[in-house]
Amino acid sequence: MVDRIDPLDITNIKALSTWMKTQNWRNIAKLEPCRFKDSGRGMRTRKGLEAGQLLVQIPRLLLMTAGGFRSSKEWSWLVDKNLSCHDALVLYLLVEKNKRDSSFFHAYIKTLPEEFSMPTDLGNEMICMLPTFIAMKFQDKIKSLQDSFKKVARGYKNICIKELGFCEFKWAYYVVNTRAVHITGSSGKFNADSSDCMALVPFLDLLNHTHDTSCISGFNPDTNCYEIETLSKTPKCSEVFINYGPHDNLSLFVEYGFLIPRNPNNCLPLEMTDFISACNEYDVKLSNLCLQTISLHNLMKNLGLFTDGPSWSVKALLKVLSCDWSSLMRIEDIIYRDFENQGLTEKTLLNCILDKKKGEVCDSLSAIAKDKSCLVTNCIVSFLEECLSIIEFSYAN
Ligand SMILES: C[S@@+](CC[C@H](N)C(=O)[O-])C[C@H]1O[C@@H](n2cnc3c(N)ncnc32)[C@H](O)[C@@H]1O
């Protein structure tokens, strides 16, 4: 379903394409921005696309990287400041935006969204209504946003000789977080060698995500361009998607501010503490041998409920927790025992964990349903409903 794109966007995107053409860019896959009912502003193709075809080929000169600071007098000061590549790019974007139409990237900056609806903007009152596994993820992201603000604001004051407002900062942070690509693998620290490792890529960043497609992307030194090749077919006049990675909905929501309905990568994470409290509740004794085995075999990792039921680690951990450690057994005999033939204890422990998670999610749903006032809370409600169906499925599987 396609909608007309607003006139201001059309003007800005025409100006973007004119500017990019001056740097030898060509729209090789005949992509055009459109507004779609489900995914918002994205790209459609005016011709059918085959697997193996290039979607975009963006010349190096058009890539915005913090390496752009290289010719400035602040360069040596910046490389000493122990910034991350992410924060350095946020700072670079703010400095370029501040230059208005004298920035080389002015036409690009005009095409960026003016506002973002992100879960990190939720107040504490709302976060307290959420189940712990969601609240913790939001709080971690809020903390990294605030840490980043302190560092970027220091750099901004030094370069632009004025204070940076938190809202202005958040805009740039969200632009980089939701749109930047990684060019080369690096430690993530900004220094003279890694300054070009993250980039904002004009035009390419108008492509939306779906888990249903695959593509290959990266900088091609032979063409000196950042390229994306699609590995899927797209019919003429349909939306062209790329794949941002195998993200579950909680990660998509926290990092990009959106959800994919019926996302097959969905997962409800579990913690070791969920298992310990279920054991305490049912008086299951945890011997030293049992705890050592869990640690030795890394069974506290990858604990989660997926769309096809509990993860392998959850099943293995339940078996180890509920086996009789007084009679000597080989760990392989315990872990690889068929989960379907589980004993009463495993089933009891799993149901206890699921009941608790279900209770947390249901309490949160009824508290939030009273305040379905904005896009973010609507997304949270959809996400919680998906969590409920994952939990229900796990009871049976
Ligand atoms: C790289 S940008 C893609 C273009 C963006 N939609 C725009 O208007 O500029 C990434 C952002 O697009 C949105 N997005 C991407 N894929 C989406 C999808 N399948 N459904 C809804 N929103 C999506 C999210 O807001 C995400 O943070």
TrEMBL record:
It comes from the Eukaryota. It holds the Pfam family SET. Residues 29-245 form the SET domain. Gene3D superfamilies: set domain protein methyltransferase, domain 1 (3.90.1410.10). One of its GO terms (molecular function) is protein-lysine N-methyltransferase activity. This is SET domain-containing protein. It comes from Artemia franciscana.
